[in-house]
Design brief:
6 copies of one chain form a homohexamer. The first copy, chain A, is built from 5 helices and 5 strands, in the order βαβαβαβαβα. With 125 residues, the first copy, chain A, is α/β, with parallel strands linked by helices.
Chain lengths: 125, 125, 125, 125, 125, 125
């Protein structure tokens, strides 16, 4: 039941990750942190999440595009928010349907609204 | 004029109701609390509200479905947010148009975003 | 499989019903006609439909509001289009979520677009 | 009542205007033709319309931007579709809210869908 | 300029492809037919299109998912409509953002409305 | 890069302006304050903004309608939120496309959600 709210936050920069997790928790979302694409995949295999918030560039290995695609294969209705400091140009070809791209730097309110709106607009059954 | 913002919160669990009213007030929404369907109907007859946020199960008597239908008969443009801890399956047949269903437990940010988005998207005249 | 497209058209005026069924068929939608609320309920119990297009006033007995609520109890994702020659005022309290109200007289293109848009925007799984 | 469907088509090129009026009529929309901005204003003062479909450049005098603004002053909920063969860049600053810009050349189906979608999404009361 | 309307239709079943191309042309969309994923890629390299309408299963080689991703790499704003006779389950992980999935069999009006709505809602500049 | 978040807040009442700027800053949006239409135009000429939040009545001289139109001429994708204590009736004819009208008094959460939603729904490239 708790999984209705739980977010998976995937970001390889620890300082950004901790600050963002703190803001999401204060908004009411239990947040699990993940520092790499491979770790994110493991988390998605272990547990169920309402949303995944992922950076695109995650160092060597899997990217945020890969993480989101895997998350949707596991849970087709999971909400997806991408973050990037680069051009968001690739979103049109690499993103999944009904996802949101938020460009860094972003306001905390933007991220909270993105996550909340996606969870609200998902069909409730 | 104040009625443009005033919310009617209908919830029979006092602890949940008080906590939620507090969060809605802090977000800037003057909130009137109601503990039963019958009381909610009386409030809707007495005053004008921008939105009604209602639990589905309200103990004996009227349900949240009944409260929302009555609210819309009085004010066809009133925003409606339902809350439920059960399956949200009945929303498709029992809910009113352009309403939102939020499943318990929910993040406070989800509720604030639901109310705010409905009030924004309502035609301004 | 065929049920993905099949429409149930509920209208007690035979001339309007036949003309509208003809237009919907030409747009590519296999259409079953029903002349009363009670008959519509029977059809919905017998078979599966992608959408129900229903007049509000159906003579004595069940109304279009009743038909749509029953349809959604059977199939929570069924598309719903209401038609009315009266004021559409009651839709806000009597309609079901994500339904469309089309006021008579309407252009055939309006009805075809209403049905098609609802079927497209329904989640594909 | 008929005005719920009636369109005002404003286009100074007679051949385009006649062909487009014909297509809109076949889709079920009674269409009044207007060949200039000044004539369109006169039509809008005389009668009520569900939608105005207007070219931007209308020769000397009033533009399509002017026509749409006047139409909305008269009827705040009138649907507005602009057509242009130029860059649509000015729409962001000169268009009215909830309007649609269709670039020439366009498919007839695009125009019919634009008009129909706007009329459907307008609140029914 | 013509490319604002031109569609690329990718379908390996010749009978379905010819019938669908005919319907799209009658709706006003100049349509280029392609019978395989590899041919579709070549067409997308040669010319500019407003939309790609593609079957998912295209025999051996590239799938419709591949075609759409390539199309978006070339033209980030190109409209994408997928068709499938299988479960549409994979769309959530394999589709591109703001695309539409239409399940076979579909009504011609559904496809025309899907293409037209996507072209209308694309930002006009 | 910072301009992706920066808001221009145009309000001639200093007390309201300061309180609102403070709330927007706390939500994470760097906010530049402007006390008149003429000053707002100067700010828009000097720098780039993600959004403009403007009162309609700005004393003598330019109105909020003028400010928003100028902002869109400079930056066609800039988000626009209007505020008014009067009837919002004029928005239909005087507002710009994809803008939001928020009526005073409003909850802070409404303004934050309006700004955040507009920035999220803007195409990311």
């Amino acid at each position: 039941m708790k999984s209705r709210l739980r977010l998976l936050l995937v970001e390889d920069e620890p300082l950004i990750r901790v600050a963002l997790a703190d803001a999401l928790e204060r908004a009411g979302y239990p947040t699990i942190e993940s520092g790499s694409g491979q770790d994110a995949i493991s988390q998605l295999e272990l547990a169920s999440f309402a949303a995944v918030v992922t950076d695109i560039r995650l160092g060597v290995g899997l990217s945020g595009w890969d993480v989101a695609r895997f998350a949707r294969q596991q849970h087709p209705r999971i909400a997806v928010v991408y973050m990037t400091g680069d051009s968001a140009f690739d979103w049109a070809s690499e993103g999944v349907p009904t996802s949101v791209m938020v460009q860094k730097p972003f306001a905390i309110a933007q991220m909270i609204t993105a996550v909340s709106s996606l969870l609200i607009s998902a069909a409730p059954f």
